[in-house]
Amino acid sequence: MTLRLGVNVDHVATVRNARGTDYPDPVRAALLAAEAGADGITAHLREDRRHIRDDDIERLARELPIPLNFEMAATEEMLAIALRVLPHAACIVPEKREERTTEGGLDAAGQHNRLQHLVSELTAARVRVSLFIEPDARQIEAALRLGAPVVELHTGRYAELDGDARAEELRRLADAAALAAKNGVEVHAGHGLTAANVAPIAAIPQVAELNIGHSLIADALFVGLGKAVRAMRAAMDAAR
Known about the structure:
- The chain has helices at about 10-20, 25-35, 55-65, 75-85, 110-125, 135-145, 155-160, 165-180, 200, 215-225, 225-240; strands at about 5-10, 40-45, 70, 90, 130-135, 150-155, 185-190, 205-210.
- Helix 2 packs parallel to helix 3 (about 55-65) and helix 10 packs across helix 11 (about 225-240).
- It has an 8-stranded parallel beta barrel, surrounded by 8 helices.
- The protein contains 11 helices and 8 strands.
């Protein structure tokens, strides 16, 4: 299986919004990433619009030559936007206004009734639903009950740890990926991944896609976005 790379352009919008200008343009960044070999583009429209804005999502859906993965909180507002824009995929993520970035996976097991409506509506509109969850059997079982065709495993803890603790978290991720794939659920992974730490995650055979943003935009400051995307692509392919 060829491992796909989804490039998250949120933090291009973060730089733009810091000065209240219309540049740098996250849509332009997405198009450059596509030219450099990205398989998809991820953008998270947060409730507080701290980076990606509504018009960014509209333009991405209209202009991208590759699939758009719309990250969204489990709210009626975001559901309505997804049903209007109709991205290729919608990844439902936990969201708190006070957090700096997503701090963990969605509690799919504890929010079944709330999530079922969203999953059903998106699926009926032919939007592929993904649930951003911790690498935990209980959460994967919940994704199965909800009928989500994709789970994205949160790799944030793996990225923050080292030594034996990182090795243990990697085992959890590998076990979760194997369990999900065994039950017919496609496995994605992301959060905190860099060119330096991506190889062990990319080597998990059941993982079909990695979604990476912050480290790519950071590297792009020094080498350009195209080169950063190609370097990440090469690191992923080498691990595979």
